[in-house]
Amino acid sequence: MATVLNKVQWIEILKNEDLTNETDLSIFQALYSFDGHKAYASQVGMLLGYRGKSPHAPLNSEVGRYAKRIAKFYEVEFTERSQRKYKYWDLFFNGWEEGRYFVWQLKSEIADALKECKLTGELQYAEEIITEEKGMFTEGAKKTITVNSYERNPKARMLCIEHWGHSCSVCGLNFQTMYGDMGIGFIHVHHLAPISQINESYQVDPVEDLRPVCPNCHSMLHILNPPLTISQLKEIVNVNRKQ
Question: What b/e sequence results for 221-241 when a residue is b if at least 16 CB atoms lie within 10 Å of its CB, and e otherwise?
Fold first, then answer.
């Protein structure tokens, strides 16, 4: 079993730029944003912009390099997988198989260190969690939280907004145009798939499955169950603008 580093050690590692690079931190922040700090490894890869059949493959390579860098400065023993091969991810995550996917769960010591260092990557837009959904979907509450984790995840947002821009997909509002500099970068991100269509193996593509929307339109999309589509609400807005 891999050596367990304590929170103080992880704080030192996170602050050491020779050990922790932007990709390493992004992996941690992506996992931190999920309920229970856990997600499929492939989901994390997609949030970081990797595509293809194995979006987690580049992460596996980086995790191995990261673990080896850490081992040069700290006394670390890795979990042996086979002769002279190791589970490097075991230093950072609890892991297990779920069907054909593999789950990574951020170790609590790392989660605590991220929080203390203010490096969790959490966004300010707490109102993006649609509280009504938790009551409406009792059995699916956990899935609801997971889906909204994508909406709030900084990497998912970045990929969505890089592709679709900062203007609301429904009404066209752009906060920078309306409010000047204080509106730069402000926009909510909406998940297109209704909860009923989501199963355990569902994986979000930030470009295909997310859209930028303003807070008002975001609330209106979720006013019904199932939620309105972007085009349905856009039609309502256009009709009422003409009146």
Answer: bbeeeebbebeebbeebeeee
* Residuewise pLDDT in 10s, the chain (243 residues): 567 899 999 999 999 999 999 999 989 988 888 878 988 888 888 878 787 788 888 999 999 999 999 999 998 988 887 666 888 999 999 999 988 888 999 999 999 999 999 998 876 543 444 434 433 333 444 455 555 666 767 778 888 999 999 999 999 999 999 999 988 888 889 988 876 666 555 667 888 889 999 989 998 998 887 889 999 999 999 999 887
Instruction: Sketch out the chain's domains with CATH numbers.
Output: 1-122 (1.10.10), 123-243 (no CATH)
Whole-number Å distance between alpha carbons of 46 and 109:
25
27 and 42 in contact (C-beta within 8 Å)?
Answer: no
Amino acid identity of 214?
C
60-73 exposure pattern, b = at least 16 Cβ within 10 A, e = fewer? eebbbebbebbbee
Query: Model-level pTM greater than 0.85?
Result: no
**Pick from 130, 157, 155, 160: which is nearest to 144 by CA?**
130
